[in-house]
UniProtKB/TrEMBL annotation, chain A:
Localisation per UniProt entry: Mitochondrion
Subunit (UniProt): Complex I is composed of at least 49 different subunits.
Any one annotated GO CC term: mitochondrion
Carrier domain segment(s): 58-133
Main location class: mitochondrion
Species of the source: Eleusine coracana subsp. coracana
Protein's UniProt name: Acyl carrier protein
Automatic annotation (TrEMBL), chain B:
Domain of life: Eukaryota
Stretches assigned to the Complex 1 LYR protein domain: 12-69
InterPro entries, per the entry: Complex1_LYR_dom (IPR008011), Complex1_LYR_LYRM4 (IPR045297)
Name of this chain's protein: Complex 1 LYR protein domain-containing protein
GO process terms (BP): iron-sulfur cluster assembly
PANTHER family according to UniProt: OS08G0239000 PROTEIN (PTHR47158)
CDD domains on file: Complex1_LYR_LYRM4
Length: 136, 88
């Protein structure tokens, strides 16, 4: 029973691993889980749950902040959940496009252009991801 | 006599840039992927300062051509990757 619930979680971890080794799924799962502490915490705390899809708002905020912090042009000291990309973080419109793409990749989403054009700040990015049913 | 040339609208430019980033994702080779992204970002940033309409329009048209090249290359990469997986 527990295996059925763990299987999608393990498969998700294998996808996350950069060089999946199909003969060692657990090693890959452990390695990938270590680099995604939120996912690991979620996985451990709900082992019996088969509905593992929903992200907490806290997790969305943390992960979106991490995406911003990994962008080379962002001033790390200014990153907070209320920051505006161009006004607070000193990014330009091209950087904003890059950031929104990075958010797509982090949460495995495909954001249509007309929606992506509206996302110009952290609150909007967090809102969009939190409301998206497919965010992972 | 020449037809009036208009600069591309801001949203068009950002949309073209986004298309480059999406296309570069299709490359499985990390180096090619990163190069495509970096090159696109540098070119768009460089051309941002183009003030007069004809030059800006020409740069935009060139950008669209380059996007088609990148898309074709991405398709070839995927095609070759598929061939390889089928061989194994």
């Amino acid at each position: 029973m527990a295996a059925a619930a763990l299987r999608p979680a393990i498969l998700r971890r294998i996808r996350l691993s950069p060089s999946p080794s199909f003969s060692q799924p657990f090693a890959a799962a452990a390695a990938a889980a270590a680099s995604h502490p939120h996912a690991l915490a979620r996985w451990l705390s709900r082992p019996m749950s088969s509905h593992d899809a929903h992200l907490t708002r806290e997790e969305v905020v943390d992960r979106v902040l991490d995406v911003l912090k990994s962008h080379p042009k962002v001033d790390l000291s200014k990153v907070n959940p209320d920051a505006h990309f161009e006004k607070d973080l000193g990014l330009d419109s091209l950087d904003t496009v890059e950031v929104v793409m990075a958010i797509e990749e982090e949460f495995k989403l495909e954001i249509p252009d007309r929606e992506a054009d509206k996302i110009d700040s952290l609150p909007l990015a967090i809102e969009y991801v939190s409301n998206h049913p497919m965010a992972a | 006599m020449a037809a009036a040339v208009t600069s591309p609208v801001r949203s068009e430019v950002l949309s073209l840039f986004r298309s480059f980033l999406r296309t570069s994702r299709q490359f499985s080779d990390y180096n090619i992927r990163e190069y495509t992204r970096r090159r696109a970002a540098d070119a768009f940033r460089e051309n941002r300062a183009l003030a007069d309409a004809p030059t800006a329009a020409a740069a935009f048209a060139e950008g669209k051509k380059q996007l088609e090249v990148a898309k074709r290359q991405a398709k070839n990469t995927m095609f070759h990757a598929t061939l390889l997986t089928k061989m194994w």
